[in-house]
Amino acid sequence: MPHLSPDQLAAYAEVLLWAMRSSRAVPFKHGDLVLVRYDAAALPLAEAVYAALIEAHLHPVASAMPTSAMQAQHYGNSSFGQLTFIPPGLDELFRATAGCITILAPDSLTALSDIDPRSIAQGELAEARTQQVLAHRRRLGLLGATVCLYPTEALAQASGMALDEYAERLARACLLLMPEPVAQWRRVQKELGDIAAWLNGLNIQRLHVQSEHMDLTLAPGESRRFVGVTGSNVPGFELYLAPDWRTVSGVYYADQPSIRWGRLVSRARLEFHDGVAVEATADAGGTFLTGRMTADPGARRVGEFSLTDKRVSKVERFMAHTLLDENHGGTTGNCHIALGGASAASFAGPADELTPEREDSLGFNSSTLHWDLVNIEEKRVTAWLAGGGRRTIYENGQFLV
Hints:
alpha+beta, Thermophilic metalloprotease-like, 9-stranded antiparallel sheet, 4-stranded parallel sheet, 13 helices, 27% strand, globular
């Protein structure tokens, strides 16, 4: 039985098509191929998306993703050859794909808790290689892609809610309870776009983030911009940039729990010197955190810095999934950093100019890891401007435009 009403499912599907179209630099045309990847529990939404794609004269290709039990078998019992196996035909499919909609609906958040993280990392590295074609097409503006969440019992239990309440909060966060949700998302896109334009016009040289447990500085870096609603995920209320990783210094603190690979990490504290996390501790999951930070050299560096305005976001509490928690509004808003890879969307120039060599010279971090760690404390963010002035740009959970 669907946990969202038929009207909500139809509205969700339309929002996802809008998000996919928004994330592609060139318009879709009739007959373009769209890959629909979905977890088994999300079948009702996958069917609604499929119907919407047919209505839009696009060619949907549906692909169910492995269940948690399948993932546990793959990462826990595979030989090296099985772990790194790449199915034939994926390159051909991905080169023909104009759009991709991914619907996450985890049936368990603990299925991988006993699996060696090194095995998972090896398997994910192989899977990442298969995604390179999609990533390249996306960078060139030839692929529109979005990711969303569908409510499950596992998510509800981990967040301390009944499933009905979780589904209602998810629907609210995706603006599905408002009239004309797509029009509402266009409004949010413009509102955050205006704030991003204001930030980008300040000529910020450095940012200073302060809260009870945090004192962090970083520089946006050359050829950077704050990015708002791109359509790459639903919901998307944050404004983010890929800072120059070499400039990150001080202490970052994540008081919002994070669940990754079946492990819970809570109250993580990271100390940065010259852009590298030299110390990492956590009340829970500290060993796992430090282990993941050895994945590659970039895993100890910052690839993203983000702020969310509480007046805009409709994510009001812990939802046990980063896709929602990184958009936390509540009463304090949030900031978060991502350990690992940077997003090319933050580059202020033409996408084809951001070669790997240019990324390296500008301080765009590179890593197979991308792990968002969220702080929801009361905080102040001060911008040091060109010419020596300073200005508070964020306080009490909101931008001070």
